[in-house]
Amino acid sequence: MQSTRYLQMLLVFIGAFLLAGCPYLSDIPLHSPQSAFLDTTIIGSWQKPGAEADSSEILHILQFSESECLVLIWEEKEVSVFRAFSTPIQSRKFLNVSEIRIGYTEIQQYIFAEYQVEKGQLKLRFVEDDLFADRKFTNSQDLNDFIWSKLDNDSLFGEFEYFIRSEKTELKR
């Protein structure tokens, strides 16, 4: 099933399995990619603390356009490529993440991750589906407003995943 494969690939994005819950999948982003901002603090290579230097759990985040980045992850002999762009909600930053696949014909879906970059550390946590139940959003503003209204609800998010800047700049094959 395509959505199961899609979810598995998105979980690879953080380099670890989620401990509980499922990320919320949306047919619409939090904001238009054309008017998003590129947060250059996330550009570079990131790895899980304690991971070996040649680990496949390194996130390579590259600038793609004026407002978007690409996230590349190699897992054994398979590469996963994601398009991402930032959206602010209040004083917090969120990534809108969607997988790029050749020949993919289904509707593009997004997951959202709140992130912070401080002192060489990248912290990510996914927006989970618990609070969304049967909610359907027809535009980005309504979705953005809903998330804004739930920012203080712990059920909105999963646990933070931590990454540190990697000295490794070469893209692993």
Task: Walk across the major sheet and give the strand order.
Answer: 1-2-3-4-5-6-7-8
Helix content: 10-25%
Task: Tell me the fraction of residues in β-strands, as a range.
Answer: 25-35%
Q: What would the average pLDDT be, to the nearest integer?
A: 83
Shape: globular
Tell me the count of domains: 1
Instruction: Count every helix, treating DSSP H or I runs of 4 or more residues as helices.
Output: 2
Please provide the count of β strands.
8
Class by helix and strand content?
mainly beta
Order of helices and strands: HEEEEEEEHE
Radius of gyration: 15 Å
Main beta-sheet strand count, sense and barrel state: 8 strands, antiparallel, barrel
- Poorly predicted runs are 1-11, 14-20
Cα end-to-end separation = 27 Å
Keywords:
173 residues; disordered N terminus; 8 strands; eight-stranded antiparallel beta barrel; mainly beta
Structure report:
The chain is mainly β and 173 residues long. It has one domain. It contains two helices and eight strands, in the order αβββββββαβ. It has an eight-stranded antiparallel beta barrel with strand order 1-2-3-4-5-6-7-8. A hairpin with a 2-residue loop joins strand 3 and strand 4. The longest helix has 11 residues. The protein is globular and about 40 Å long. The two termini are 27 Å apart.
